[in-house]
Amino acid sequence: METVLLNNGVAMPILGFGVYQIADAAVCEQSVLDALAAGYRLIDTAASYQNEAAVGRAIQRSSVPREDLFITTKLWIQDAGYERTQRAFAKSLERLQLDYVDLYLIHQPFGDVYGSWRAMEELYRDGRIRSIGVSNFSMDRLVDLILHNDVVPAVNQIETHPFNQQVASAQLMTEYHVQMESWGPFAEGRNNIFQHDVLVSIAGAHNRSVAQVILRWLVQRGIVAIPKSVHTQRIQDNYQIFDFVLSPAEMAEIATLDTQQSLFFSHQDPEIVKGLSRRVLDI
């Protein structure tokens, strides 16, 4: 597995397995087991996904040594703040049945993120988290957090796919040594992505699937990707992207698909902020 080196020297797999929207515990557990069997070592979950326990059971059932795994989970908005973050992190560890996580992210840029970051810095220094980072932070919020705290986020996980390529964000994160990670690499199938003429043509030239082309495109940009599937064959296929290379011309073709717009929602929309902040986790 290829890795990227985070700003604190920790190696992170460039391709991982995400479990967003895998609500059924048995399905989630089996999907993680299938992913680990296929070769994935990065598993990405979150408190808000309500499947940390299933991920934890899969890890315990797997024969993969803990030190070979890279486990990510995330802090939800209502747990923001110094003391709440400490409690929420302890609960996540308990559900995951782990002594530490490799990456802990502030899931959304709302609430007392500064209190959360202070708690996460302490947990990081205590060795209970190997790397700390953020998710869904726009570049102004990311730079503000960097400038006013001691530890620079190792990762910012943001919506990134062929229709929202985040080119300017990638450049700024490189400047501040923050690793970019893609959520929603397949845009959840929107804009008919799997039948798009450009992507289908490139996939045909390599005898690959559109999904494999998208993941290869992200990897060649140096962006960590965490595709999700509950189908064993697709989980395996999505991992098979390290034995072909997209040409500069093909990378340029995909670049033309960028709309520079989210296909989901804006974190600057007050109604979205209110809706996310009101979401109560039933865990």
Can you give me a brief rundown of this structure?
With 283 residues, the chain is of the alpha/beta class. The protein is built from 11 helices and 10 strands.
Main attributes?
single chain; 283 residues; alpha/beta; TIM Barrel; 8-stranded parallel sheet; globular
Explain the overall architecture.
- This protein is 41% helix and 13% strand.
- It has helices spanning 25-38, 52-61, 82-96, 113-125, 139-147, 167-175, 197-206, 210-220, 232-239, 248-255, 270-277, and strands at residues 3-5, 11-13, 16-18, 42-44, 70-75, 103-106, 132-135, 155-159, 179-183, 224-225.
- Helix 1 packs across helix 2 (52-61), helix 1 (25-38) runs parallel beside helix 9 and helix 7 packs across helix 8 (210-220).
- The mean pLDDT is 97.
- The active site is at residue 49.
- Pfam families: Aldo_ket_red.
- InterPro entries: AKR, Aldo/ket_reductase_CS, NAD(P)_OxRdtase_dom_sf, NADP_OxRdtase_dom.
